[in-house]
Queue: 4 jobs
Job 1
Amino acid sequence: MTHSPTPRFKTTPFSRRRRHLIRYLAGGGLGAIALGLVHPETAASREPDLEYLCSMFPQNSRCADYLPGAQAVDETGQPIAVDALLPTTIPGQPVPVGGLPDDQTTYLVIQSGPAIAPYGIRPICTHMGCTVDWRAEQNRFVCPCHGSQFDGEGRVLAGPANEPLPLATVVTRQNRIGLVDRAPSVDPR
Ligand code: FES
């Protein structure tokens, strides 16, 4: 079987990105207003509200000091510091981390800079649920069950899977990395 590898980091047309950004910002503002109306702030309600708000709209001003989700950890279980991790990364090469309650790896997406993308890859094949492996030498995720392949951001390169890999939300705050097992409000792919 031959494949024509698609570009790994397909750029989104600027107008589409701008529409996404506007929707994203509008969603953050409306989400904050809605939460404020539905839940007048009390000490008891603040934490769950912030968890939801800051995982869905991490750029909201109320989230400046709040890290939602579970903290990303390395293979020894130690929390990962952003300033220690980034110098070891290569843009385009996903970095496996732990931390989510299901104990499954999440792959941080490393963008140019280098910088950590606000989303990570959950390595769960969308064909029948096998765990895909990152093959650095092939620059792609490969499913061991029936051979589906995905690029570094989880887009399908080869079937039988026909949906991209699921995403988690990734938030960086104060040198820490938070993982939320929920797709970001806008899928960047
Ligand atoms: S489960 Fe991955 S290709 Fe079938």
Job 2
Amino acid sequence: MADERIALVTGANKGIGAAIAAGLVARGLTVVVAARDAAKGAAAAQEIGAQQVTLDVTDDASVTQAAKEVQERFGRLDVLVNNAGISGGRNQVPGAVEMDTIRAIFETNVYGVIRVTEAFLPLLRQSTDARIINVSSGTASLGWMTDPDHGFAARGTMAGYPPSKTALNMLTVQYAKALADDGITVNAIAPGACNTDFATALGITLDRTAAQGAAIAIDLATGPDRPTASFMSDEGQIPW
Ligand SMILES: NC(=O)c1ccc[n+]([C@@H]2O[C@H](COP(=O)([O-])OP(=O)(O)OC[C@H]3O[C@@H](n4cnc5c(N)ncnc54)[C@H](OP(=O)(O)O)[C@@H]3O)[C@@H](O)[C@H]2O)c1
């Protein structure tokens, strides 16, 4: 039986967001592809049979307008996937940090999620099974980052991207606690290192596909269990 739930995915015109949107369509949800570039969003939405809205997570007016359009079209939202994110590139090595880079990363990866979540909360409150999924990163994990036996021990350090995702994880917990009485679940996911433009821009080629990275978000959005305040990969709970 078709799931009549409504889902919106930010940054869904490509990469992991597009794969999450496609997976939700495949599970029968009505999906809104949110993209800052209207033409790219429309093309991506058409390809998977989704709807589209223009939304730049760094722009108050754009986010407010997108929420208004979803309100007018559906009157509610059941699933919000805060996926849009940027790596910020290379100018974030501790000791040689470019402040504009750090600000841009936090504007998108942290403030953008707050901005979008706040704007769509009234619509999520109209749902009987509302779920928020924040696309975080394994690099957010303080547990993994400080474990000398973890693969991150040998990695280069960054003052922008991993801290932004650690902040996103704490936001996940804060919103989960705040929205528990409303029955709205809030979880963070780590998609794993996937071969998207995000990785290629850093000069990295990876075997893992965006669809593989999307799987845990799709499960959390549609599965029978309703965990909240968790940080999950497709291998299970990740240490905060
Ligand atoms: N790929 C990985 O290995 C990996 C690992 C861990 C976590 N993640 C996370 O997964 C998420 C998706 O990354 P990805 O690998 O799919 O990267 P991607 O292919 O670069 O896609 C990023 C998406 O975010 C959108 N976006 C960026 N800034 C935006 C803004 N201000 N407003 C609206 N949309 C915006 C991009 O839109 P445009 O096309 O307009 O730029 C694009 O649709 C990110 O949050 C990232 O941090 C990725």
Job 3
Amino acid sequence: MNFSYSDKVVELQKKLTEFMEEYIYPNEQLYHDQIDKNDPFSNIPPIMEELKEKAKQAGLWNLFLPESEYGAGLTNLEYAPLCEIMGRVHFAPEVFNCAAPDTGNMEVLVRYGTEEDKEKWLKPLLNGEIRSCFSMTEPDVASSDATNIQASIVRDGDEYVINGTKWWSSGAGDPRCKIAIVMGKNDPTAPKHEQQSMILVPLDSPGVTIKRVTTVFGYDHAPHGHAEIEYNNVRVPASNMLWGEGKGFAIAQGRLGPGRIHHCMRTIGAAERALELLCKRVQERTAFGKKIAEQGVVQEWIAEARIDIEQARLLTLKAAYMMDTVGNKEAKGEIAMIKVVAPNMALKVIDRAIQAFGAAGVSQDTPLAASWANIRTLRLADGPDEVHKRAIARYELKKYR
Ligand SMILES: Cc1cc2nc3c(=O)[nH]c(=O)nc-3n(C[C@H](O)[C@H](O)[C@H](O)COP(=O)(O)OP(=O)(O)OC[C@H]3O[C@@H](n4cnc5c(N)ncnc54)[C@H](O)[C@@H]3O)c2cc1C
């Protein structure tokens, strides 16, 4: 394994860092100020579209999509350090059209969409004109075990009829969100992992109702939003079925691999930013006669944070390298490991940064509180820690059977 960055990646890192410094950090507050406080899901902060245009012009657009004709032609290993930089500010990935859940959904459309799907949905997603959501989790069943999913997708002539209630469909609060990839059962009698399918459902279809958006520790994540959606006798053309009936699990394996590792890359960026803020703050303030930075305990936090970030980054790069060389399926152990390591590592670093800031750390005056709340969800979203650990233990036990 050679993890040194190629000239192409170093150049993109430099461009991206400069872009962040010139346009993203100076507009962090403006982005929040431009969200309509009375109706936060009604508008997109105008600064977002301005920044997207600038990113497109700078060639910093669709950097994901490894080795696909539609993206920037980067491998997962090349994308990792760039995704990390974007992760330093929660809304930055959207500026570069590299935000979840669109990236995972676009990968699905590239792999399993028909030419018509690509024209209708992939093209506007790649252009950043619309957004998408992924509707799998349901309120009534333990959705960390996706075989529990109950929504039904039933063939009726040239159409499929979809019924079910989903929640935590991230991004569906956004007025630009036009398409959902919905997971549901088309054959409850088939073998366990062949009962589920994924199908494209336009959100303006009759029978689709957004019931509410759920909050994360009180944050509404507007205008993105995590929506509860009712699908009531929704009819879509049979051609909207992705890959084929019963392929839901097979698609999920492909989709969740890249999606998970992108989260980890961004999470490392969030941890780096927290450590940077911590280091600056403790050198500015004095308590009990010396700089807070001179306290041994604070130096230990800093040293541990640096060690933990480096370890997590190396495991992320290894997982990305394996995805590129042996494929997402063979890299599943490394993907599961980093999916547990990265959020837990970042939560520890951010928590210490919050502590170092004193009361300001829990307020809206730094990005730390929101970042902690955001990253805490990654111990649940895309599979809880325990489920990934169960998989890792199984791979390990299998070696000695
Ligand atoms: C911010 C956020 C965004 C999300 N975005 C999306 C999205 O866009 N689309 C979507 O479909 N879903 C989304 N989700 C949902 C997420 O994927 C699910 O919450 C997750 O899969 C867990 O399912 P559940 O909530 O039903 O928990 P349950 O399945 O009820 O599990 C509850 C707990 O049980 C424990 N547990 C489960 N299995 C095991 C085990 N084998 N061993 C030990 N303990 C276990 C774990 O501690 C787990 O947290 C999102 C969630 C959050 C918080």
Job 4
Amino acid sequence: MNPLLKLRLLDLPYPNRCDCCYERIPYDQLLCPACMEALEAERISYDDWAADQSAQPWDSGAVLYSYRDTARNGILSMKEGDRGFARYAGQKLAETVRKVCDPETLSFVTWVPVTRRRRLSQGYAHAENLGKALAKALDVPTRRDLLTERQGTLRQHDLPSDARSLYAQRFQYSGGSLEGKRILLVDDVLTTGSTLRRCTDLLLEAGAESVSIATACARVREKAAADGQSVP
Ligand SMILES: [Zn+2]
């Protein structure tokens, strides 16, 4: 059967839906046009988040959207395992990454892990589909299982920002030497940066030459508040 016809027929019982608003969309679309337009209005840059880049262990950062409205809906559906927003954001994030680092110099893309229990129950890490889509768009290999998260009872978003660096100690490195590797580390949302700082430190301690970070969203107001700056 013609593969396009097969997709069209599949679309009848299993309609493709936009991850951000759940409207029906054509089978070959990742998101609906209204959400793609809304996302453009939610664009921010890494510099909006990073008031003091020298405080960060990574070489460069790439961020797409403010964590609100449409982008927030996309992140929430990505956590549920939907791939539309992850693939769309992965492609867009690749364009942003290219502006701050040369993909040809990157050794691999990896992402912030989840606990083994969570991975077994849901089958993926929440940043994994984004990381894979980004790696594909950049034509860079991926590596998983370098970083692990120990099981605990608290979820990070339940914690105040000053407890987040303590929480980040749950992440561990479990791979071999990363001597000379240049790594792109991916997560869904950048808030205080404690998780990505911890994961970056672990990769650098394992010998990585450099780490850059890329996230779909950032929470600029929360970061400013955690830094003790006044928030308008
Ligand atoms: Zn939509």
